[in-house]
Backbone:
């Protein structure tokens, strides 16, 4: 199953995507803005860096609210330039990606 929602944060619009996975694995989650995205730990920060994306990773998340309330575990150079630093809570800095 694949789910897409539009969410508003700090006056900016984001597309939130969730895909359930087989065998009771946690879902794949991504919240995307105009300038970049926040992704769950399934996705690869090194690949995002290679492509020049503004991307940050969170882990241990199962819902969009979990993503927004999670601390950033890793971020690309471009994301860090926008203020998405490891340790910061996503909801406090995600507007920079909008």
Residues:
């Amino acid at each position: 199953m694949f789910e897409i929602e539009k969410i508003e944060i700090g006056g900016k619009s984001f597309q939130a995507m969730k895909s359930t996975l087989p065998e009771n694995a946690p879902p794949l989650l991504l919240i995307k803005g105009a300038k970049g995205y926040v992704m769950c730990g399934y996705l690869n920060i090194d690949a995002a860096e290679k492509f020049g994306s503004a991307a940050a990773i969170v882990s241990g998340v199962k819902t969009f609210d979990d993503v927004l309330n999670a601390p950033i575990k890793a971020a690309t150079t471009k994301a860090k330039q926008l203020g998405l630093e490891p340790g910061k809570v996503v909801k406090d800095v995600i507007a920079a990606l909008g």
User: Anything to note?
Assistant: Residues 2-97 form a domain with the Hypothetical protein Ta1206 fold fold (CATH 3.30.1980.10). The beta strands are 2-9, 12-19, 28-32, 37-40, 55-58, 74-75. Residues 69 and 93 are 11 Å apart (CA to CA).
